[in-house]
């Protein structure tokens, strides 16, 4: 992994930790004011920290997702693809889904500018 990309990967690790801890303010502090975030649970995208806050608040009132980053892949254009293990439970604790997916991040000025959900990486060079 390029040492120049270590701060970006640590930023993403912190974002996952904040999400899993339900610390919305800490997670939003790692995003740009014009962040574009997928509504993976409902479809479409939200834009800006307040829309992300509203989406996550709604999501967490219906399901209990936990997302662990497994591997980081450096891509062209400064993007980072993260292979994650995602476990989604209902509010009673029953597992609804346990799967590996990809999250592709675009960073700008050391903050998350966009994320998209994609298939998990298969043979991309690892970071």
TrEMBL record:
SUPFAM superfamilies: NTF2-like. It comes from the Bacteria. This is NTF2 domain-containing protein. InterPro entries: NTF2-like_dom_sf, SnoaL-like. Residues 13-113 form the SnoaL-like domain.
């Amino acid at each position: 992994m390029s040492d120049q990309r270590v701060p970006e990967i640590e930023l993403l690790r912190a974002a996952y930790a904040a999400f899993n801890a339900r610390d919305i303010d800490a997670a939003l502090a790692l995003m740009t004011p014009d962040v574009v975030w997928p509504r993976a649970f409902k479809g479409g995208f939200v834009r800006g920290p307040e829309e992300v806050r509203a989406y996550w608040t709604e999501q967490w009132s219906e399901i209990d997702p936990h997302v662990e980053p497994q591997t980081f892949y450096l891509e062209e254009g400064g993007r980072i693809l993260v292979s994650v293990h995602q476990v989604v439970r209902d509010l009673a604790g029953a597992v609804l889904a346990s799967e590996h997916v990809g999250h592709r991040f675009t960073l700008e000025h050391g903050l998350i500018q966009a994320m998209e959900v994609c298939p998990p990486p298969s043979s991309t060079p690892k970071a």
